[in-house]
Amino acid sequence: MTDQSTRDYDAIVIGAGFSGLAMLHHLREIGLRTLVVDGEDGIGGTWWVNRYPGVRTDSEYSYYSFSFSKEVRDEWTWTERYPSGDEVLSYLNFVADRLDLRKDIRLNARVDSAVYDEAANTWTVNLADGTHLTTKYLVSGMGVLSQAVYPDIPGIETFRGEKYHTAQWPRAGVDLAGKRVGLIGLGASGIQIVPVIASEVGEFFVFQRTPNFVVETNNDKVAEEDMAWLRANYDAVYEKAANHPFGVAMEPAEHSALEVSEEERRRIFEGKWNEGGFHFANECFTDLATNHEASELASEFIRSKIHEIVKDPEKAELLSPRTYSFNGKRVPTGHGYYNAFNHEHVHLIDTATTPITRISEKGIVVGDTEHELDVIIFATGFDAMTGTLTNIDIVGRGGRTLREKWAAEGLKSNLGINANGFPNFFMSLGPQTPYSNLIVPIQLGAQWLQRALKWAEENDIPYFEATPESEEWWRAETERTGRLTVMYTEGKKAKAWFLGENIPGKPEEFQVYMGGGQVYQQHCRDLEESGYAALLYRQPATVQA
Q1: What's the rounded Cα separation, in Å, for the pair 498 and 60?
Q2: Where are the extended beta strands (E) located within 97-184?
Q3: DSSP label at residue 62
Q4: What backbone phi and psi angles, to 5 degrees, belong to 375?
Q5: CA distance 195 to 29
Q6: Cα(346)–Cα(342) distance, rounded to whole angstroms?
Q7: 142: Cα separation from own chain's centroid
Q8: Cβ contacts of residue 76 below 8 Å, gap of 6+?
């Protein structure tokens, strides 16, 4: 085992959300003195920060939870099919208390930088309050959608009304009753907030640049017998999710959308649309993510549904994506989203045809038209996957930051877990990990790292560091599998975050692995069975003059 005398901790994990809690539990199990640090004043990560009206999961409760603790499984009760943000936050606090994790979590501890010391083989984590903590292993559990982005619109600072970003919503809430409210951004957050606030505001102006293919759903209450069934079948549910390409406990589709009759295709589409949520994306047909013709058939079906639901034909058409097809953007779930546009006081403003010119003291100017507002809400998303990692200085060998490495070389890692030049630095849900219901790769990743570090400790391995060859292989594999999907061509058209297209100037690269979560896990098992060969890089010796 390692010499602990000169370090404060064996492992430090940044972030106290799902990733941080899973890592803390699993690393403590193998005897590592582990600390979680988080800049916020509460446990929950993205579920602590995101508290806007309507925030909830878009994965069903049965597979949006950990399976590793029988105590948590048996004692926690979900109440909604798609749990609200408050309920998820309560669940994470329950996990922290039931597994006695809180004693090893330090809140209000914002990380400014983390610096690797080659001579000592340690990381020094520098906090904003001036504290310096040393550790052998450093783990990022900072999440994939937590670095909020504001749009680059002239005049934002001049607006005299109230301004809010969905990722920085006041904890005390916001009184929107009777006010003139403008919303910019219609990704997952915007789609969730629209139906919730539409009925309370006075006038609602929704500024839309790119419409989304929203799969509507319902949110049934979870009955006592539902929880009893889940507790009896938790392992089977989790195994099904772990073996699904997108980490959901769903049945695999049986047919291509192209090999059935038009009547049968419509019947299947209707059935899964009525079942709601991701069942439409994952259970209709085998090729909605890989075949452009199949994707367009799904697109046309959803467009027909939009026109059925939205009474105003002009609004319905504006809400119907025409410039890209289904799966070109991450598919969001809706809870009455399209119906919200049937309110007369909800106005849909097309900013693709006539862009937003500026924000004025009074409101938002589109072309030459000024829409006077009391409140502007920005649901403009995140610098996904890499944003949290490049927002702080993670300094590896030779004083080079992770930000500088990726800027110079492109996005590189071994399986999204570790990067060359950054010994003993690991990422939960790092870039190039699966495009998935995130709880599955979080748990499997924590369990994989637990086994890897246990092996390293038992075999006196000083550090794990991805070899350059493994990074090149994984970058090529991520690109290859991504290009086999419709996400490549359609994602570029839709300016999707999974290609980095939503951030001006960000290189166009696959931020996530599109080859399937179950395939990714096999790659992780292969690395483990090889004795972690691709993580045993040795820095070339310096030649003395």
Answers
A1: 22
A2: 105-106, 111-117, 122-127, 132-140, 162-165, 180-184
A3: G
A4: -140, 135
A5: 44
A6: 7
A7: 11
A8: 65, 91, 94
Average predicted confidence (pLDDT) for the chain: 94
Helix (H) or strand (E) holding 376, with range, is: strand 375-378
Quick one: average pLDDT of 187-193? Answer: 94
What angle (nearest 5°) sits at the alpha carbon of residue 169, between those of residues 429 and 42?
60
Are 452 and 532 spatial neighbours (Cβ–Cβ below 8 Å)? yes
Q: Which pTM value belongs to this model?
A: 0.95
Query: So what's the architecture of 9-147+384-535 in CATH?
Result: 3-Layer(bba) Sandwich (3.50)
Helices marked H in 310-382 — which ranges?
A: 313-318, 337-340
Q: How confident is the model at residue 382 (pLDDT cuts 50, 70, 90)?
A: confident
Q: How far is the CA of 252 from the CAs of 30, 242, 246, 434, in angstroms? A: 36, 13, 11, 18
* Contacts (Cβ under 8 Å, ≥6 apart) of 134: 6, 7, 8, 9, 120, 122, 123, 124, 125
Where does residue 100 fall: left (phi above 0), alpha (psi -120 to 50 degrees), or beta otherwise? left
Q: What is the pLDDT of residue 542?
A: 54
User: At a CB cut-off of 8 Å and minimum separation 6, what does 459 contact?
Assistant: none
298 C-beta neighbours (distance < 10 Å), count: 28
